Amino acid sequence: MTVCYKKTQNNPSSNFTDKITHILLFISPWLRGTQHIRCTQSCTSFQELLKLEIIAYKSEHKYGILRKNKVQHKHTEHLCLLFFVFQEKQYVGFATLPNQVHRKSVKKGFDFTLMVAGESGMGKSTLVNSLFLTDLYKDRKLLNAEERINQTVEIIKHTVDIEEKGVKLKLTIVDTPGFGDAVNNNECWKPITDYIDQQFEQYFRDESGLNRKNIQDNRVHCCLYFIPPFGHGLRPVDVEFMKALHEKVNIIPLIAKADCLTPNEIKKLKDRIREEIDKFGIKVYQFPECDSDEDEEFKQLDKELKECTPFAVIGSNTVVEARGQRVRGRLYPWGIVEVENQSHCDFVKLRNMLIRSHMHDLKDVTCDVHYENYRAQCIQEMTRYVRNESDNRMESPIPILPLSTPDVDTEKLIKMKDEELKRMQEMLNKMQQQMHDKEQ
Amino acid sequence: STAFVQWVGEKTPISDTSYVGIDAILEQMRRKAMKQGFEFNVMVVGQSGLGKSTLMNTLFKSKVSRKSVQPNVEERIPKTVEIKSVSHDVEEKGVRMKLTVIDTPGFGDQINNENCWQPIMKFINDQYESYLQEEININRKKRIPDSRVHCCIYFIPPTGHCLRPLDVEFMRHLSKVVNIVPVIAKADTLTLEERDSFKKTIREELRANGIDVYPQKEFDEDAEDRMINDKIREMTPFAVVGSDQEYQVNGKRILGRKTKWGTIEVENIAHCEFAYLRDLLIRTHMQNIKDITCSIHYETYRVRRLNESNILFTSNPPDHPAVQPKANGQPEEQPATPQPNGVAAQHEALSHEM
User: Fold this and answer.
1) Is the pTM of this model over 0.95?
2) I need a labelling partner for A386 at 20 to 30 A (CA). Which of A239, A247, B58, B70 fits?
3) Chain B residues closer than 8 Å to A328 by CB
């Protein structure tokens, strides 16, 4: 038996949970064994779902939510809930584990660090404002050409707390003004790579330290790199920058200010850039593969996403009137560019990917791949330092050196050093004793 | 047949100009958690015959205990305490979990039970050690397999009087390294009044001996937690009855024990507190139990180990002794000379400490 319940976004019902409970209790006498009820409700908040699940578990008939699907249906989004009725015997209850985890995460909140890099005037700040619906750059003063002559690449952090539907996000934007602006841009990415490494090092120290209760994760989770639309593909500075960073951070290349290109030009440029990325061996962020058990629609969206990279984006700080609605856009004499119109640019794809579907994966790849590589390198360098140390004093910069997989050489060396230390200590004691005797 | 119920409101535009979508990260996390699955390791401690295996089977509604896995092994009391782990992959509504039940046959069964808790303490510390070793590895696994004991259910025999010296000894030593959930076993021998007075006595004795059982007061995170946990603390230890036999009562099939004077329904809260234990352990506090193990008990162990291994690497002793949380209330000896054998050697000495 299928029961469909539809409710639209502008009609948030505080009685939603009551309604569902009522329906369930009403038809439950007719349910035998395992049957399912499908309830659709559009744009519910996660909190509501959690509440509903708790009610379902507490009710006599032990309902539970098997699967949540997001279904795009015409003008609204539906969230599909599939309930299963379990006979008491089989039901243990650890299926609430994901919710227990979530409850903790919701309390704690999330954090995300996003870096933006590219020459001045590529629309980085505007895009960030459009993505997160904030105004992070209110009091910014733009430098003129003269002032920029002696400017070096700076690293500036902006932090903003965003809350939506009960979920808290501490967003940090790392800006890189000055990148690529000088006459001689040799190694202009060095301050950026240094910054990223510093964050890794800080995390490494914290993680190896004694008190790990409140480690702050300042590692850069993602770097949006803005490629100018004016050229014919990647320039040398683009290639060198991406190659310097591709093993330290997730790079997502974007075609900036895409409203100066026609659809054909965009397609050609994208193809060209993808080719060059392959040719130069640049490892940009790869979207993870879809599971085989995902629904077709999800797989289709995923495929489209992958074929669309690099995203051609437009940002805007202004709201204009288009087709009877107020939207973010840019007003030109020949028409209005709408930022969130998918036929105008890939902004929506970028936002959905960055925030709504891959934010967690970006963090995971940073932790599991980039950070682990840094850490492994760091440790290997330290053990090399121990090996080369001809001095007698041996102090490790961090509280513990991993010895679980030492090579035999290192262990022997450590043993030798320890014996040396012991001998020196004995000699010192003898000398002190001799001096003491002399004095008497 | 389809019954279509529709409450229709205004049509909303697809462009959501005021919605970023950061709450979607919860769904992303859930997806990942579902893919990865969960782990839960629970230890059962108590004299033989207190119904430990049956209770495990009842809790997880399937044969997860050691006895069920090796049904033909003769029941005999081992000469020393043994540690036997049995793992099962269970699934419910798409959530997969690797459940490990750690049994401790021989505990409290000897004539002389002095220090019978030591092998258990060693086992728990061994799990912390192997996690630590994996964590400090150079090329460590993406997801370190978690064999740490998350929860230890301690079975108190239903004497109705008070805790025995063995109970106090065990819980005093182990409550500092693992989450202990004490239960009154085979509670169908106690009337409700006897049960309540027994529980009160137990709670008082725990307090008098400074034993903090789960949920520990000092780890309540906020007022909401404290409120929920206070209610639980007023009820510990839970008086439980286990069963894997089904009977028909009032038209429903329930788990229970049938006697001449009536049928005890395991999941009926009027009969025993099994349902509360199950809810606590599985439905509401499982993640919290794991969190306390990871972020408090394990960290305490880790800090202690780090401070020890620091002795190896600085040629002068530290100016002031580092703060070392004691696992068992005993002072620890600082070795006079650094030992060149690496971190592993120290561990052997400590785990047998009294």
Assistant:
1) no
2) A247
3) 17
